[in-house]
Design brief:
Structural class: mainly alpha
Number of helices: 16
Order of helices and strands: HHHHHHHHHHHHHHHH
Strand content: under 5%
Distance between the termini: 15 Å
Length: 424
Amino acid sequence: MPSLAPNKVSKTTGVLLLLFAISVIISQSLMDLFSTVLCLYLAYQWFQYRQQTPRLVVTPKMGFDWLWGVWLAVAAIGFALNVPPPIETPSHFWLVRLVEFKWILILYFMVGSLQIGSFKESGLKWFNAAILICSIYALIDYFIQSYNNPNIEIRLGGLFQFAMTYAHSYGIFLCVLFGIFLSTKKSLSKKQFLFSATTFLIVGASVLFTFTRGAWIAAAIAIVVISFLKSIRTGITAIITLLVLGAGLYLMVPSIKNRIDFTAKVAEAKTAKESYDTERVVLWKTNLMIFQDHPWFGTGYGQNKFKLREYYEKQGLPKDQFIGHAHNQYLHLLAGTGILGLACYLGVLGTVFLMTLFAYYKTPESNTLYKGLALGSLGGQIFFAVGGLTESNFEHSKVRFAIMLAWAFGIWLYRASKPNSQKS
């Protein structure tokens, strides 16, 4: 997929995109830095070559561009209908949340950077090396902490120092890498095969030791689904492998067994109070109550968190009842932006997924890298969608950047499969 940009611009864009991708697995500050640098560089190049024929496109159309405007309008109306906000809401909270939608513009630049700089095997190697190093560091840090604190439950947090965010970010990349591996493994040398397989296993191990059950489930489902997309035989092999691996880990690793047994407590009345999972059940129920009172536009994007105390009192819950986001992305948006806001979100998820699926089937088998990238993007999107059932994952900026990369790959590959896609 040749770029219409000058060679120097294409190479620089590719390097900046790689640095940005690596920053997503390291820290929020680096993500903000390199996303800003990438956007400013492309905006400058657009200005420099604005008279070029054909013109340089840095923010290509996605085909569902109108949906972004509708989603933003719904969020804005939700705030307008709920003014003044609850007394606990920070000053200008509505403005901060609306400004956060700038991620949409960044996504456009990400797709544009892929179109200009393309995606090369060398870049994949660098990213694999980076995520391998970060995952090894995370595992070493976890085992050191576990050894030094034998009586405390330690969860791997890696460079993010937070297990939940790490699991839901690295889980996306785990599935992307698995999709690429499935497609390219037959064409890899022994050295490349070992490197790719090792990277996948180490990243997978790091996600495992976050003890984030929602991420475990999401990864298992995503891996099985894209394995079946590859072939029925691969899908069946994935199921058997995961069942054997899961049983082995349960029987041989006490910390994993304890985590699974802990989950079962919430199902029994006698032990439910011993599990903090009941807090999530209360959050889900309460956000549904908020939605019932604000069905169309919600109580304001993210403001549902500040309405929890009011609704806890209606239920007669204690004053120290946990307050936080809904721990379910769909309920979080339902309560915050209503049915219309959730519909916009699901519209984005569904549309990008279908575009990526189209790209996967349209990409020839001979192009194993792009075929695998499309398959991996599907896996990352499935992981993210399933993970949203147990965590408000899109509310974490680090996770949002990770899924934006998966979306950008899917949209770019879809556009590349359409004629004259470079011109708009």
